[in-house]
Structure formats: structure tokens, C-alpha cells
């Protein structure tokens, strides 16, 4: 009987390379799925301290805004449409521009007065006469013929904001406060976030225990909440929301750049990167987003009336008739710009204006705000 060494063979399961690769893929997939379900706000392949902040800025009660949905985005919070590796270069350049800027909010002279209407009730032709104004010594009409009704402490906070300001507003409790995502580690030190609300919205925040009415100053996550006394402005909440939307540079006279974010949207990219990519690098004064659903201004007007977003339908009709009288034409794909308008000025209207970035220089402050007061 011959005695020999016994051979140890690999288990059958490890003899197939394809099977091993399949098992490895399955285990990895299960791990990633489990990780993302337990930590939905964290990015698995981002561990560098220089990457965007992924932790949530505020935890909302489950009952708050459960029926108020944000316009959906197909972009992951772990990715950015602009390379975040440029963040530190962008931060340094924005800070340099803000520190070295010679632009002063006092370069233009604005009309003052004490009238019943916030905007002064100027006719369309009267406002148009100021569009090509070259003499800076002439006072221009641009709202604030009534004092904007906010507290003195809030006004001081607004005037102390230098550099970049991000602004939004919720009136008549129409939307919910949404926290920005993908902010850089130094952004909150250099960017101000202000949310304007009326008393109805404030009551809703108190009802859902998002804020406490016992305090005179409110904040929700990154946003400082500014209460506006709507009884001292317009009866229509939508009209009151137009004021901070179009006059950001007047409400924040010491800021050099501003971003307006409609409350139905959520800021998904660091504001410094947006300012740099869309305004500074392009050497322009303003950037405006394309409407997410409608191509032509008339489409948005019809949707506004259909869903009763603007109660004064006759006023909406008069507004559109005014646009048509001033050159609004049907939009076609042959037009060189993605808007149903005859010229660029008409793209700056209340119906299609959702997301904008504004550089606070003299030309932009003069022409931009005069048109918007006219449009609103």
C-alpha cells in the first residue's frame, strides 16, 4: 500500500473567477446601499476636509412643510456642476474683489419721499425716461417712497453684510424654508443668508416649532429670518415678495454681490462658486436662470392665473398687455436667446425671474432696478 501526500484543493466556489467577481460586486453594492440608507447626507467617496459640508444645517419637524415640495433636481448632493476643487481659488478672488471694490451704493442718487404707494406710482413712460440716464447727479425713482417695515436690529444686520448676500422670501406661508447644500467650509464666514417673511409665515414657523416667538431675532439653520410688516406695504403678499427680490442691492447697500433664490428652489451649489462662474469669470453684471418649465413669458402668466398664484387676474392681464405694447413677441426656436421677448430688458420680469445673481455696480443698480419697479 503506497502512502502519499494528500492534495488540498480549493473549494469549488473559489475556482470560478467570474463567480468571485460577482460575489465581490454583490457585497460592495450591499455595503454602499446600507451606508447611504443610514447616512443619507454623507458622501461615501468624499472624506477630505476641503470638500463641501455635508451635514444638515437644521433638523425640521416632520410636520413642517409636508405638502410644500421643492422643484426636483436630478443632481446628487455629492456632486457639483462646477468643479469644487476651485473653491479656495474662488474664495480668495471673491474676497479680493470685495475688499478692493471701489463701487459705492451712494454713487447713484435715489428719489425720496413719503407717499402712500411703495414705488411712487410713476407712469411707465416716466420710468423709461430714466433708462439711458447718463448724469449721476439726477435722482432716479426706484421704490422706497415708504420705509421698508423691518426692525432696527434687522436693518443694522442687513447693512452690516459685506461681500456676498443670498436672499429669499416667503410671504403668506406659501413655501417652506430650505437649507442650502454643498457649502464650503469658509462660506458661512463670508456669505450672509437672509430670508424675508411676513407675519402669516412667522405664525406658521411658530406653529411647527421651527422658531420661538419669544425671541426678537430669528434664525433657521443658515438663514437669518427678517420679519416684514406687510400691513405697511401692499395688500397682495406676492407684491411684497417682489420688493426684496428686485431691490436686493438697496436693502443690502454694502454688499458687492447678491444671489436671489426663489423659495421653491433649493441652493445646491456653493454661492461663491456660482458668483465666480456665472458673473466674475464671464465679466458680466447679471446672470438669470432659465425657467424650469416654461419658455415664453405668456406661458408662465397663464399658469399663474390658472393656479391662482396671483389673485388679481385683471392686474396680471394688464401687466402682460403692457409687455406686449413694449415689444413682447411670440418666442420661436430661431431666436438667439432662450426667452420669449424682443430684447434682453424684457427677460427681467416678475413672471420668469426665478434665480439670479447680481453684481452691485452702478450701471446694474440703475437700469436693473428701474425696470423691475416698472414691471412689478
Describe this structure in words.
- Helices cover 33% and strands 10% of the residues.
- The chain has a seven-stranded mixed beta sheet with strand order 3-4-2-1-5-7-6, with helices on both faces.
- Helix 2 (87-100) packs across helix 9.
- The protein is an alpha/beta fold.
- Strand percentage lies at 5-15%
Structural class: alpha/beta
Radius of gyration equals 26 Å
> If helices are DSSP runs of H or I spanning 4 or more residues, what is the number of helices?
12
**Which stretches are low in confidence, meaning pLDDT under 50 for 5 or more residues running?**
340-356, 361-376
Which strands sit side by side, in order, in the main sheet? 3-4-2-1-5-7-6
Order of helices and strands: HHHHEHEHEEHHEHEHHEH
The tally of beta strands, per DSSP, is: 7
Average of pLDDT: 76
Biggest sheet overview: 7 strands, mixed
Q: Helix content range of the residues, please?
A: 25-40%
Measured between the Cα atoms of the first and last residue, the distance is: 105 Å
| Coarse morphology | globular
Organism: Populus alba x Populus x berolinensis
Domain TOD1/MUCI70 glycosyltransferase-like: 113-339
Protein name: TOD1/MUCI70 glycosyltransferase-like domain-containing protein
Transmembrane segments: 12-35
Question: Keywords for this structure?
Answer:
7 strands; 376 residues; 10% strand; alpha/beta; 7-stranded mixed sheet; disordered C terminus; 33% helix
Amino acid at each position: 500500500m503506497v502512502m502519499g501526500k494528500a492534495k488540498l484543493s480549493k473549494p469549488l466556489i473559489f475556482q470560478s473567477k467570474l463567480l468571485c467577481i460577482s460575489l465581490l460586486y454583490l457585497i460592495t453594492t450591499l455595503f454602499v446601499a446600507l451606508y447611504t440608507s443610514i447616512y443619507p447626507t454623507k458622501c461615501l467617496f468624499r472624506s477630505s476636509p476641503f470638500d463641501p459640508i455635508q451635514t444638515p444645517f437644521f433638523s425640521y419637524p416632520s410636520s413642517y412643510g409636508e405638502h410644500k415640495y421643492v422643484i426636483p433636481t436630478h443632481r446628487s448632493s455629492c456632486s457639483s456642476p462646477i468643479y469644487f476643487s476651485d473653491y479656495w481659488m474662488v474664495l480668495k478672488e471673491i474676497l479680493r474683489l470685495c475688499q478692493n471694490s471701489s463701487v459705492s451704493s451712494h454713487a447713484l442718487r435715489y428719489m425720496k419721499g413719503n407717499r402712500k404707494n411703495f414705488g411712487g406710482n410713476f407712469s411707465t413712460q416716466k420710468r423709461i425716461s430714466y433708462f439711458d440716464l447718463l448724469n449721476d447727479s439726477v435722482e432716479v425713482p426706484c421704490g422706497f417712497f415708504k420705509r421698508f417695515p423691518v426692525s432696527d436690529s434687522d436693518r443694522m444686520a442687513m447693512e452690516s453684510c459685506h461681500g456676498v448676500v443670498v436672499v429669499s422670501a416667503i410671504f403668506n406661508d406659501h413655501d417652506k424654508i430650505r437649507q442650502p447644500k454643498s457649502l464650503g467650509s469658509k462660506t458661512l464666514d463670508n456669505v450672509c443668508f437672509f430670508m424675508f417673511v411676513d407675519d402669516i409665515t412667522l405664525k406658521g414657523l411658530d406653529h411647527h416649532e421651527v422658531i420661538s416667538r419669544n425671541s426678537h431675532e430669528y434664525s433657521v439653520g443658515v438663514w437669518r429670518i427678517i420679519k416684514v410688516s406687510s400691513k405697511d406695504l401692499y395688500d397682495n403678499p406676492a407684491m411684497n415678495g417682489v420688493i426684496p427680490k428686485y431691490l436686493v442691492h438697496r436693502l443690502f447697500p454694502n454688499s458687492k454681490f447678491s444671489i436671489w433664490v426663489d423659495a421653491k428652489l433649493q441652493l445646491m451649489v456653493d454661492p461663491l462658486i456660482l458668483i465666480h462662474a456665472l458673473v466674475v469669470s464671464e465679466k458680466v453684471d447679471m446672470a438669470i436662470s432659465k425657467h424650469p418649465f416654461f419658455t415664453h413669458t405668456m406661458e408662465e402668466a397663464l399658469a399663474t392665473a390658472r393656479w391662482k398664484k396671483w389673485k388679481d387676474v385683471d392686474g396680471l392681464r394688464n401687466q402682460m398687455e403692457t409687455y406686449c405694447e413694449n415689444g413682447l413677441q411670440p418666442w420661436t426656436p430661431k431666436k438667439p436667446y432662450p426667452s420669449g421677448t424682443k430684447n434682453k430688458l424684457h427677460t427681467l420680469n416678475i413672471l420668469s425671474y426665478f434665480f439670479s445673481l447680481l453684481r452691485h455696480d452702478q450701471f446694474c443698480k440703475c437700469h436693473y432696478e428701474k425696470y423691475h419697479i416698472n414691471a412689478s
